[in-house]
# Entry
Amino acid sequence: MPQLRKRSVLLSGHATSIALEPEFWAVLDEMAERRGVSLAALIVGIDRARAGRPLASACRVAALEYARSR
# Structure
C-alpha cells in the first residue's frame, strides 16, 4: 500500500489535516504554483466546491481533472 503523506491546512479558521499519496500532492503543488496561489488557498477553493464529497477525495479528483486537462 502506498504511503500517505499528511499536510495540515487551515479551513474556515480550523486546522485540518489531509492525507494523500505523494503523487497527488505533487499535482496539487503544481496547480497552486501555476495559478499563483498558495497550496492552502487552492485547497480552500477545492473545499468550497466539493459538494459533500470528503475533502481528500475532492483533492484527488481536482488533481486528476487538472492532470487530464494538460
Strands lie at 5-11, 14-20. The longest strand covers residues 5-11.
